[in-house]
Amino acid sequence: MKYFIIYDRLINIKNISLICPTAKFVSLLMLSNHKIEFLKPDFKKYETSVSLKETYGHNTPIAIYSIDDKEIINLDNYFSYNKVPQNFYKINIKINIKNVIEICTAYVVTTNSKK
Fold first, then answer.
1. CATH number, domain at 82?
2. Does some domain include residue 114?
3. 78 lies in some domain
4. Domain region containing 24
5. Domain total for the chain?
6. What whole-number distance in Å separates Cα of residue 33 and Cα of residue 68?
7. Rounded to 5 degrees, what angle do the CA atoms 12, 16, 22 make?
8. Which tens digits make up the pLDDT trace of 17-69?
């Protein structure tokens, strides 16, 4: 089992269920020292995008879902993760889930395709 962090528009359960139909909701919480950042990316698919940025003193609401390997493929396809230019990259964040530190993955926007 792997954990996926959702923030901004995808936090709505209806939105994530369209991408990952078998994902299981785990928790809703505040992510410390991160903020949502609005970007004008260097690719034309999106007018503005939302990303997660590590920023001391800020907190961001997130949802955590457990996903399997098939759902990771669905997410990679949704975020065009393996396409060129690469508009998203993955970050891993340690999160306390039910008193156990777990590694959770989030997709974040890059404004330069070299990440």
1. 3.10.490.10
2. no
3. yes
4. 2-109
5. 1
6. 28
7. 130
8. 888 899 999 988 888 888 877 766 555 555 556 677 788 988 888 889 999 98
Task: List strand residue ranges (DSSP E) for the chain, in order.
Answer: 2-6, 24-39, 49-67, 88-97, 100-109
pLDDT recorded at residue 102: 92
Evaluate if residue 112 carries a pLDDT over 70: no
Residue 38 lies in a domain: yes
With a cut of 80, say whether residue 15 has pLDDT above it. Answer: no
Task: Tell me how far the alpha carbon of residue 51 is from its chain's centroid.
Answer: 8
Residue type, position 14, single letter: K
Task: Measure the N-to-C terminal CA separation of the chain; round to a whole number of Å.
Answer: 26
As given in the structure block, the two tokens for residue 36 are: 């949502």
Residue 41 belongs to a domain: yes
- What are the residues whose beta carbons fall under 8 Å from the beta carbon of 53, sequence distance 6 or more? 34, 35, 36, 37, 108
